[in-house]
Amino acid sequence: MARLALGLIGAGRLAETGYRPAAALTKRVGFAAVADPDEGRRALVAGDQLIEYPSADELIGAGGLDGVVVASPPATHEEIGRLAAMAGLPALVEKPPAPDLAGARRIADLDPAPSIGFNRRFSLGAGFQGTLPDSGKIELEIRYRRFSWSPVMVRDPALLDLAPHVVDLALWSGLGTPMSVAATSRRPERVEIAIEGVSGSARIRCATDRPHLERVVVRDAAGNPVGGARTGGHLRGAIASLRPGHHPLVASLAGQLDEFAAACAGEPAPTLATAADGVAVMEVIAAAAESLAHDGAPVALPARGITA
């Protein structure tokens, strides 16, 4: 099977440390070109293998690609997604799909609508789809030290940086339609979110100023643990620092790219997130933001009819 030729839009740390090595691990895709207005970053990610373009418009307009991966800042996702749709190109847009709910809805209205990069489905969330018992509870935590990641541009608060990943996993687990959302935060680097769904509840913690840890615990209606997963932590971080190799994100991104290739070929891609999934997540994020603005008061989603 011939590998699909993809364009990589955005040459930040995720492209450099994540997507480039991830593509090398897959058998179905390879990057043929990269676009970024920063010449130095573009050259670093391109190496001597990828064709360089200063803009997404020029990369897409050059043709010869089977799809694009959009790893640029969230504020650019909608316009780049629109350019890809106009060219008939499948697109994988990194999370969050847009800076706000309205943008996520416009992205979902594109034809073809892009897939969304909730890569934790391929790592922390693997095996948890639909596993939440009726009236059960899922506890999710994700944290890292942003300065250790050294992002090139994005400095989003934890609500927009990390929460979309674990909100998606909460919905992925079988939480059902969210009925209410409450959020608390004493600083932008940390946020806690409580979601009450029709089939269960979720408790989420996110931090961008603490040592790396990702964990999930699933409990039944009586509160007994029935499943879980964990990565990171002090000990595992110390061990990983002594072992050369890819960043922990790479394996999940490789799995995501393989399913994106399947979607491009019209094959089933059951784990890959859709634009509709992105809207569902951003509905929760919007409700959490409203809750924060009202001292943590719960926000009822169906009654509110979120429109922005």
How is this structure best described in words?
The chain is of the alpha/beta class and 308 residues long. The protein has two domains: 4-120 and 252-274, Rossmann fold, CATH 3.40.50.720; 121-243 and 279-304, Dihydrodipicolinate Reductase, domain 2. Helices cover 36% and strands 28% of the residues. The protein has helices spanning 13-25, 39-46, 56-62, 77-86, 101-108, 146-149, 158-161, 163-172, 234-241, 249-264, 275-293, 301-304, and strands spanning 4-9, 29-35, 51-53, 67-70, 91-94, 115-117, 136-145, 178-187, 190-197, 200-207, 209-219, 225-232, 273-274, 299-300. The strands form two sheets. It has a seven-stranded mixed sheet, with helices on both faces. A hairpin with a 2-residue loop joins β9 (190-197) and β10. α4 (77-86) packs parallel to α5 (101-108) and α8 (163-172) packs across α11 (275-293).
